[in-house]
Structure formats: C-alpha cells, structure tokens
Amino acid sequence: MRYLQYLLARTILAVCLLSGASQAWAGPLYSVSIDTATLGSGPAYLGLYFMGLADAAPATATVEHLTGALTGVASATGAVTGAAPGPLVFGNANGGSDWFQAVTLGGVLSFDVSFALEAGDVGTTFGWALFDDTGYLGGDGDLGTISLQPGAGPGAVYLLANQSALSHVTVVPEPSTVALMLLAGLGMAWTARRRRS
C-alpha cells in the first residue's frame, strides 16, 4: 500500500511538471511599456502590427491591458478584432494586420501581448512603433519586435528585439504555468516530508 501511495505521488508530480512545461512552450506573456516623457507633449500615434509571409504558420497575437493617454477612435487593417483596452486579437493571414491609435505624448503607454502559433515552418513578427505626421518617434522605425519562429524548436521560439530605450519589455510567465509549478513544488515538499516520516 505504501508503494502505491509513493507511485501515485510521483505520477501526480510528473503530470504537474509536464503540464507546466507544455504551458511554457505555448509562449510567454510579454508586458511592454513605452515611456514617452522624453518626447515632449502633443499628439502622436501608436502602431501595432502582426505580419507574416504568405506561407507563415497560422498565428494570433492577443493584446490586453492597453493603457495610457489614448485619444480618439482607433483604426485597423487586416484581421484585427476587439477594442482598447483589449483584448485586441491580431491574425497573420493574408500578410497580417495593423492597428493604429491616437495618443498624447508625455506619459507611459503599456500593454501585454501573448501568442498562439500553429504548426509550420515560416515565422511571423509582432511589432510596435510611435509616429506623428512627420515620421517615427524614438527611433528610425519600430520601438520593438517579437519574432515567432515555429520551426526552430519545441512549440515556438520567441525572439525579442528591443530597438529603442523608450520601450521596455518584461517576460511574464502565464498564471496557469505559475500555478502548476507551485502545485508541483508542493507535491515535492509533501513527498519529501512523507519520506522522512
């Protein structure tokens, strides 16, 4: 009987660890903040895009918690659904999608983005930029990009390129991943305690 309890505890632990690992492969959550204080004040535009080549693996990008001095009505091209503060769901079919929002400079703009990617060999890129009527702000183009490379490993490989000091990106594990890893840790502690007694 004791052996069966031990085997059951080990099995539950293995399932929790594998579940946590599979969630990690599904892709992290990226928290993006853009500090526009050094750009002065006045109107500008925040642009978000999700672009794939013609044979890119089907994918979606979900933007949530969009905050900052947003003004007016946003405009979108391609497969974008939702409205600020989110969720905004971008598709990469037919070349991708763009979303533009008028903003007032001088504060911090922020959002979270996560991805779902199907099997395939060709990647997709998510990017963000600030611009006004004369050109890009804070750099010569995008403030940052995240490239999804499905053929490079298990699940997808996410390559982050932060091209501007205005933009800061933090990788946040998904809550379900944290919960599963916590459960696995509790299972290991319980097993160790049972073994000592």
Automatic annotation (TrEMBL):
Residues 1-26 form the signal peptide. InterPro entries: Ice-binding_C (IPR013424). Pfam families: PEP-CTERM. Residues 172-196 form the Ice-binding protein C-terminal domain. Keywords: Signal. This is PEP-CTERM sorting domain-containing protein. The keyword Lyase does not apply.
